[in-house]
């Protein structure tokens, strides 16, 4: 199995660690200002960012563990630690939603809507948007570069903060005009955004953990196999994903008069063709004579 280079591992750990620091700064700022102003929008954002911090820590260790090579107990490597990390982050996002919806609904029902808005409210929200934008771009860039679901989930966490912070900012502006209900409504909008992101992350991670085959990948592999003239037929194509890697197992039938060396060359060619089309892919081909089908 191909192992990531030391440089790649360092870059993934670095971007994950910087995100941990960013989450600490953002969470602290939102919590302090939220408590001082009583803004549910900012407090909900503080909780959201606090869970982002936990998620960032989980991502950091998941990226570190997933870089370990395959061993006796983990023949397919440790890549699924990244997928497990993404699943845990989904649960954290859902916990955020429950708290936000409860608090916002409570304030709307009891009429306790008035909040205090000052310049620091705007400072912390705008600063949060800038930091979240920077971290989201860095994480997504690394996620695409190394096909890391853990980093992608972390990037989506920070992306969620950007959208929800904009909503809270609108709520603060409305509060300046004594429209205090906007703050609680903003918090509910934040919850809706978080639920949408949680569903997206959760579905991807659970699909991988349950070894669900990607229809797109299956279609691509079948198309490649049909284009190879030396293959008479093929069957039992099995595809699974673990972290950044894709594993493909398949059976092919070739001319029974071929020598072992010739059959081996065909299987090697099949492996090369698939690996060139699918990044970070490992292929195992079982060759059979056509007459045995």
In short:
With 293 residues, the protein is mainly alpha-helical. The protein contains eight helices and three strands. It folds into two domains: 6-209, Cation efflux protein transmembrane domain (Alpha-lytic protease prodomain-like), CATH 1.20.1510; 215-292, 2-Layer Sandwich (Alpha-Beta Plaits).
Describe the structure.
The chain is mostly helical and 293 residues long. It has 2 domains: 6-209, Alpha-lytic protease prodomain-like (Up-down Bundle); 215-292, 2-Layer Sandwich (Alpha-Beta Plaits), CATH 3.30.70. It is 70% helix and 10% strand. It contains 8 helices and 3 strands; from the N terminus they run αααααααββαβ. A 3-stranded mixed β-sheet has the order 1-2-3. A hairpin with a 2-residue loop joins strand 1 (233-242) and strand 2 (245-254). Helix 2 (40-66) packs antiparallel against helix 5 (149-176) and helix 2 (40-66) packs parallel to helix 6. It is elongated, with a radius of gyration of 25 Å.
CATH class of the largest domain: Mainly Alpha
Largest beta-sheet details: 3 strands, mixed
Low-pLDDT segments: none
**What's the arrangement of strands in the largest beta sheet?**
1-2-3
Question: What does the secondary structure layout of this molecule look like, with pairings?
Answer:
Layout (H helix, E strand, L loop, with lengths): L5 H32 L2 H27 L13 H31 L8 H28 L2 H28 L4 H29 L5 H12 L6 E10 L2 E10 L5 H18 L3 E9 L4
Parallel strand pairs: 2-3
Antiparallel strand pairs: 1-2
